[in-house]
Amino acid sequence: MDELIRILTYVAVIASAVSGALEARKYNMDIVGATTIAYVTAFGGGTVRDLLLGRTPVFWVGDPGLTVTTLIVAFVSFYRLNLVSNNLLIVADAIGLGIFSILGATYTLQLNLSPIVAILMGVVTGIFGGVLRDLLCIRIPNVFGQSNELYATCSFVGTVIFILLNALHVNTVFASFTGAAIIFIMRLLALRFKMTLPSP
Amino acid sequence: MDELIRILTYVAVIASAVSGALEARKYNMDIVGATTIAYVTAFGGGTVRDLLLGRTPVFWVGDPGLTVTTLIVAFVSFYRLNLVSNNLLIVADAIGLGIFSILGATYTLQLNLSPIVAILMGVVTGIFGGVLRDLLCIRIPNVFGQSNELYATCSFVGTVIFILLNALHVNTVFASFTGAAIIFIMRLLALRFKMTLPSP
Amino acid sequence: MDELIRILTYVAVIASAVSGALEARKYNMDIVGATTIAYVTAFGGGTVRDLLLGRTPVFWVGDPGLTVTTLIVAFVSFYRLNLVSNNLLIVADAIGLGIFSILGATYTLQLNLSPIVAILMGVVTGIFGGVLRDLLCIRIPNVFGQSNELYATCSFVGTVIFILLNALHVNTVFASFTGAAIIFIMRLLALRFKMTLPSP
What we know:
Three copies of one chain form a homotrimer. Helix content of chain A is 74%, strand content 0%.
């Protein structure tokens, strides 16, 4: 289980780092900016989660491999990736959203905290990497905009289902994959069919 | 005493959540944005305080009622509040400022830390919900502007008086109400008479 | 050793507070804004470091002298400093960068964490005061821009050399001064010769 969590963390971190570094290029940042944005996008959600829960040192401090991997991904993305297909980026980002959300809820439940807080923490872990990335680029976070397709909503729905399956004592690995898969698929469907939320 | 602190926390959180959600509407955010801004405004000051003091998990993680309440307040404010009187908002915000400032100083003193740090922590708890709200809306925090009426200054004055009363061994409940009331009244007077600070 | 760390912390904090308060004036902030920006610039990097490492309460909470010093520096800078030489500011900032970077790496090593993480933490401690200052002024952090002279890079190089000297069991005080001096000198050279990093 721990090994599985570690692999999933690496997948989500790499996917987020690529999206962060490519975003930085759009703003004419140099490699320092790109690396910082890559780190913030990849580590941000999980770091906020760990700080709020008091799980310190935060997750990446204990696993230097994450620091090295993100650095390499940031350099390669910044200097070498010119022909990245947009679809690849979307898929990578949706994978990150799914995995980070379920990890956030899982860690909260491990501390015997309320399932309601676990849902909030799942969404925070899922979206805050992107929120912090947008803040450092000085623009209103994408995820807050009315014209944006469902994003936090996917994280919310998938995390709620994961929590429900857990409450029903379904096998944890199965519940995790179901939750992450629902987030992943719902996000791609939302993009495909341009689903948005009702305005006031 | 603990029950009193809990009630005051709820009052301050609800007042801040309303102001956060209404702010989000001005920026054409969807309900996800409004909910996030409501959470950040309501939980931000206390969360920063708890992180700095090492009081983790942070205050709202241990009380799921706060999460649910803020969510409901955000939805109602976003979809239903069309005719909110501006005066009501100002009063709600001033209540939040007073309560959060005194709570920040109280928790610092409980850890046997210096009264000087308690004053700083009172101000931080009082103003940082609004500072983070403004950052997420990508604008220079209101509270920093020269044309702005006294805001952090009210928090500072009230917290100093609260600390002094405490040092004189005045009854804690009385000292707390005095401090919060001074912040509340001073803020309303500053707005009424458009008081500002001297420029350089 | 502890006394030395304390003195260096004060030097770096004062240098950063001056630069923060003067920055705030450019944005027409009042004294509250200037004081907050001064605190964020002076305490920001070390606070982020302490939160990530779980060293709470954070460093300035335990030393009220830092809070008072920064407040005085902010007031004097805001109301009295009209003829500050630009060179003085640049030198002060470079001193802060050097000291904060080495302190960040030192505290990480004290927790027996990986040298790789210590390097990242050194850079974070060195640059995040300025990053947070720029965020509160709503502009893309200086340090990320392509036209900017080496800044984070100096911190990175000096911290790596400090870590290497440490691994070779060189005397800690000597290693610290060497690392900080390299950062300081490299930063001034980068400014003098307008060195930048390659674009993608």
